[in-house]
Amino acid sequence: MTTIAFIGTGIMGKPMAENLQKAGHQLVFSDHYNPAPADLVANGAQVVHSAKAAAELAEYIILMVPNTPQVEDVLFSENGVAEVLKPGQTVIDMSSISPIETKTIAARVKETGAEYLDAPVSGGEVGAINAALTIMVGGSEEAYAKALPLFEVMGKNINLVGDNGAGQICKVANQIIVALNIEAVAEALVFASKAGADPARVREALMGGFANSKVLEVHGERMVKGTFDPGFRIQLHQKDLNLALSGAEALGMSLPNTQSAQNLFDACVKLGGEGWDHSALIRAIEELANHSIRQ
Amino acid sequence: MTTIAFIGTGIMGKPMAENLQKAGHQLVFSDHYNPAPADLVANGAQVVHSAKAAAELAEYIILMVPNTPQVEDVLFSENGVAEVLKPGQTVIDMSSISPIETKTIAARVKETGAEYLDAPVSGGEVGAINAALTIMVGGSEEAYAKALPLFEVMGKNINLVGDNGAGQICKVANQIIVALNIEAVAEALVFASKAGADPARVREALMGGFANSKVLEVHGERMVKGTFDPGFRIQLHQKDLNLALSGAEALGMSLPNTQSAQNLFDACVKLGGEGWDHSALIRAIEELANHSIRQ
């Protein structure tokens, strides 16, 4: 049994924490951040009133919060985690945040003698509930090997990608590819439909060849059927592409099609689609073509 | 045994014709178009001196030529196929040409009473040799059902997508997705590498999740290793994206990321890369980033 401070029990964090509790670990929540989940408290999770107090009790401090500023706040603000960190403890940031800021955050944590892993996930709420998340980890091999049993309670496809930052870099790379593969399928299906072919039959014919992808299978089907309930919300993918685009700017490089996909997500938001599934990017292409693939 | 006039015995057409001959069919070549393959002639293929003369002898006339003007020339020029077409014959265009012109070409052929199928392929020279081509067919169900045994001698993943033109539309959709998935992997790996991660490990970590695709598997490996011998040449993918972009213009729609990928292929050609494998599109992204992922 390991004692784990878990900060950020939203749509993703709550089921992840629940899987850790089911595996026999002692959870500690701080209700300064958000209310502690009542069912997990009823099953024995402790509740304290600051990130610092939670970290004092725990061997692992897991963060699952919206973005870079929230990670910095939980760790480094007054009554934050860093005030009590010491050797033997490990901070695991499973949020999706800036890969570039992560290197600085990791260095500050390690100054205390504690370990740091960046370990963002993909797979969404369903993956979190089913303990089937993909987990992309950055950090030392020793810290990774020690934390692996905890990751295995929450995910399935778990990889140490490199040093601190590499997990977040890998997550951004994942979100670039998923967005651009969605955009690719959208352009192809709108072209096919506007040219007179049945997009459902085109998608099926393409699934046997080099055009095949998880996105053609999953998001392509959503486009053909018009099932745009999330899923993964456009506003969350916009946040991830902002990490890519601001990161690229800081690195002095350009990501032309990522910028284009972000523009198309922005166009969806103007159509009222911030809460649509990201496969609804096709609606922006349909607007440009003045043509819907769903007759 | 069926008698088949086969026009266009280049890198793709020659092994396709050879597979038809091995399956027991009688081939007829016209040496007006290109020299008849000597080995197939030694095995019993006939040689005549015009497309018209070849068509007079054959139940099926298969075309495997570079682009739309060559198809029109073989069919409709003086001493062309159309001069002798009659009911009971079928023209199968397996070239990759304009989907929009294909509808006109099919209508002109059908005026003679003959049948028409557009049946472009993907899978490249290796797929042609191994009878493993993906074949995307447009035409009537009856003509498709009758020709299917011939397709099965040349390919594996064979689909009737819709009426005439739908095969060519599907091929263009295929080439849009493959180009844009290559571009996606290129942006992601250059970003990851420039941000300090190992692109090989990032690619491996991504292969278990929603970013996975045939392109990440096959072309992603080429990018990481820098093996850019074709494969599928950039100049051929440029031709296919031109069909997409000119088709989109004719249809009054835009394909923003297809245009961007074409610009990046153009940049590769300026670097001397018209004969590189299309996965070398990453070199254009590397130029923009002033960074190679291969140390």
TrEMBL record, chains A, B:
GO terms for molecular function: 2-hydroxy-3-oxopropionate reductase activity; NAD binding; NADP binding. It comes from the Bacteria. Residues 165-284 form the 3-hydroxyisobutyrate dehydrogenase-like NAD-binding domain. Residues 3-162 form the 6-phosphogluconate dehydrogenase NADP-binding domain. The keyword Transcription does not apply. InterPro entries: 6-PGluconate_DH-like_C_sf (IPR008927), 6PGD_dom2 (IPR013328), 6PGDH_NADP-bd (IPR006115), HIBADH-like_NADP-bd (IPR029154), HIBADH-related (IPR015815), NAD(P)-bd_dom_sf (IPR036291), Tartro_sem_red (IPR006398). The keyword NAD applies. One of its GO terms (biological process) is glyoxylate metabolic process. Keywords: NAD, Oxidoreductase. The active site is at K171. This is Tartronate semialdehyde reductase. It comes from Photobacterium halotolerans.
